[in-house]
Amino acid sequence: MKKAKAVCLIAVLMLVLTRFSYAEEITSDSPSCGVCQGAESQNFGKSAPGKIGRGLVNTGLGWTNLLAQPIQAGSSGGNVFTGIGKGLWMTVVRTLQGVTEFGLFWLPPGPEESLKYCALGDLGITGR
Ligand SMILES: [Zn+2]
Description:
Number of strands: 0
Number of helices: 6
Largest sheet: none
Distance between the termini: 36 Å
Strand content: under 5%
Bound molecules: zinc ion
Structural class: mainly alpha
């Protein structure tokens, strides 16, 4: 029972956090990512496997932000220590997002998905 409450709390936290973290709109001009497009599809037949896939990607690769963010900050002339801080934060965000999305893949697609982006986009492999 404690575990179920903890999972619910994490899910609610993630939904709230991602609302604040990713307020920018995804438009048709946004760079594309096959993983994200599947997960954010309005078609349940695409969104369910998409969410499972993105959940696994984010859970498995969330930690790569520990390396990717400082490197991106350093190579773009930014502060490496800010990049390290952002990397720590993004690792927590992506990993919790992944666990939440994997656990809640069965939810029908909403008019506006609150979970966006993936670890592949953070690494620059895909658009977002
Ligand atoms: Zn993506």
